[in-house]
Each structure stands twice: as C-alpha cells, then as structure tokens.
Amino acid sequence: MSSGQPWMAPGAEQLERLTTDERDAQDFVDYMPLWIRQASYAGGEARINRRIKDHLVRDWQVPRLPGRGRRSGRERYASGIPWSKDARHLLLSPGPDDKLAGRLVFEHVRPLKNTVAELRASYVDGEGRDAASMLALLRRLHTGWCFAVVSKRDRVPRAFADGTDPVTKFAEVDGGAAGFLILADDPRFGDRDW
Predict the structure, then answer these.
(1) Deepest in the core among 84, 92, 112, 125, taking most CB within 10 A?
(2) How many helices (H) and strands (E) are present in the chain, helices listed first?
(3) Residues 60/14, Cβ–Cβ less than 8 Å
(4) Whole-prediction pTM
C-alpha cells in the first residue's frame, strides 16, 4: 500500500522502468533530428508535434504505465496510477447494468502538448543527444503527478494555463487531489475477481 500520495512528490517517477529503456531512448535520439528538420517544411510544425506525441505515448508512456499487467475483465487502465473517487467507484462497485464504455477517461495531468514542447525544446538546446541523456530527459519529464483516471462526471477542466499544477487542475474533482488513490491501493481492488 502507498502512504499518502507519493505520485505528487516532485521527483517521484510515475512510469515503471523497463529493460528496453535505453533502446527506446535511442529511438528518440534517432528520430528527433528528422522530426526537427521536417518541422521547417510548410505545415510541418503541427505534423511533427503529432509524430513526437504519438511516439511518446505509444512507445514510451503506455508500455511503462504501472499496473498494466492486469488488463482483463473491466479494467481498462493501469491500476498503479491515481484514480478519482468516482472512477474507482464506477470500476469497483458497479451496478448490474453499469457499462464503463465512455465513462472513464485517462488524463495527462501535465498537458501532453507541454511535455512534447519541453522534449523538443530540450533537444534543440542540446539535451538528449545520446541514449543516456535522452533517457534522463524522458524520466525527468515523467516525474511528479503525470497521469490519472477520472470519470466523465468529474468534469476536469479542459482549458487551463500552462504550468497549472495537478492540485489546481483537479481541485474541482470530487474530493480534490485528496480524493485520488492508486487503484491497487483501494481495499475493494483485491476483492475483485479479475
């Protein structure tokens, strides 16, 4: 069990480490010069940000989400990241006719566009030019509270100023930041027959 909210600590890594981390970081090192060069083409800026975002989510974030090993039954998201009180209730205490489709939302607490912009800017400034420094950069970009699962009813604000911290962003969610809990730490989680 976690004590308190360890994901909110500024230096806490929210992604698991894999044996492929260095190889996957090297992929970013190999692709970034191509993406940066292509950004100078007409209309290339938005397409390149999209390529970086897609690669970041698909090849870096998703494989490293904590608790992804248990993906059977009604669980659609990682059990090792913070879930809002309402999202946990929907999953762990469903009514007989409760359908989850469209009712749970995986949120990037730190806006994904900000993570992509910081990754690009850091690379342009000379950081992340080899696998070891890219790995350090990717880990730094994924520290603190990065991800959460919320319900559609939680009404997380879509528009907020850059730099808004997670506590501010999720202050209006039922229970605020204090209402979040790692799904696997909810006592009802172990009682489920997944």
Answers:
(1) 84
(2) 7, 4
(3) no
(4) 0.81
Average confidence (pLDDT) over 111-121: 90
Distance CA 170, CA 150 (A): 10
Token duo for residue 156: 């997380």
Q: What angle do CA 59, 120, 150 make, to 5 degrees?
A: 55
Q: What pLDDT shows up at residue 72? A: 44
3-state secondary structure of 35: helix
Alpha-carbon gap, residue 126 to 40, rounded angstroms? 18
Burial 57-84 (b: 16+ CB within 10 A, else e): eeebbeebbbbbeeeeeebebbbbbbbb
Domain positions in the chain: 1-14+72-110+145-194, 17-64+111-144
Whole-angstrom distance, CA of residue 7 vs CA of residue 149? 13
Q: What is the mean pLDDT of the chain?
A: 80
DSSP run (H or E) holding 182: strand 181-182
Tokens at 7, concatenated: 């994901």
